[in-house]
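Record pair follows.
FIRST:
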Amino acid sequence: AAPFEITSTTAGTYTLVIRPAAGAIGSGGFAIRVVDRRLATDADRAVQQARTLAVGASRLEDAGKLDDARVQLERALALGESAQGPNSPFVMVLVFDLAANALDRPDNTRADLLLQRALTVLDATVGPDDPFDAVVRSRLAILYSRLGQRPKADAYARQANQVFEQTLGTK
């Protein structure tokens, strides 16, 4: 179960619509539980704005506008860091998204810096056996393969595959 927060910009009654993600296979189960209702803080609003920017960046990437997406992701990251600090799980997702954008542009140096940042924080917070940590390692494997650094690429790929197999199984 993944917690999710929603921050409104104005007071009022809202409707929450849930539908399958694009490409979802089969139906899934979910539960909604309201844990807390309170006035939003400046940090809450900053995180909500960062989420909105990240969604917009994803749409820009889908449209092939990678540089415009990068600008939005950088703004989202700055907001996330100011609201939650540099090492929060939310910020690590933004760092990863910015790294993926750098891989796609391609800006290999920036991708490496961002992926190494994410890996350092994830290793210290969730550990190397976490699936998100493994996804970061798999992206590093792609990057180092692209750069012709096979031994580094192979090491990251092996580490990532080990976690994927433990998490998902081998079949």
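SECOND:
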Amino acid sequence: LATTWMGAATAVAAGRYHSLALRASDGHVCAWGSNVRLQLSSVMVATATTARGDSAAPCMQINDTTSSTAVTISSLAAGHEHSLAITSDGRLFAWGKGSAVLAQSADVGAPTAPLADFAGPTPSYVYEVAGGDDHTLARTARGALYAWGANDNGRLGTGCDAIGGALHAPA
């Protein structure tokens, strides 16, 4: 991969058929590969072309969903068909396959903050995130583990094997 169009990266992640990188020069999330479930996002635009003339990875600035101001991304993760980004102040943004992003059937094309529940009366910030096949795990700064998405084979840790799942903290 010729990276002259992107420059240095401060974080990388790989899904099944897509890749992510956090561009050092401006903090934009760059993505390439399959976008069949919107895991590259529906709002990204190509920012350059490669030496062969191919479109370089589309990159985007992630904005706060309420104020539309830019957020600073500190880390990335990818699941099978979804993408995840943690901000420097501990907020999580996700996009791609709906079941893994918001535990719903519709895919999500724009970075969305699925974990509004973390901002309860005593906010806890996302410290680490991992994407699975059709589910997501997040660990807060306080050590609480949250899981959501598909629950077949018991992957959400609820003690049952039901298909589908919701945001929860396993005991």
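COMMENT: The first helix runs from residue 98 to 102.
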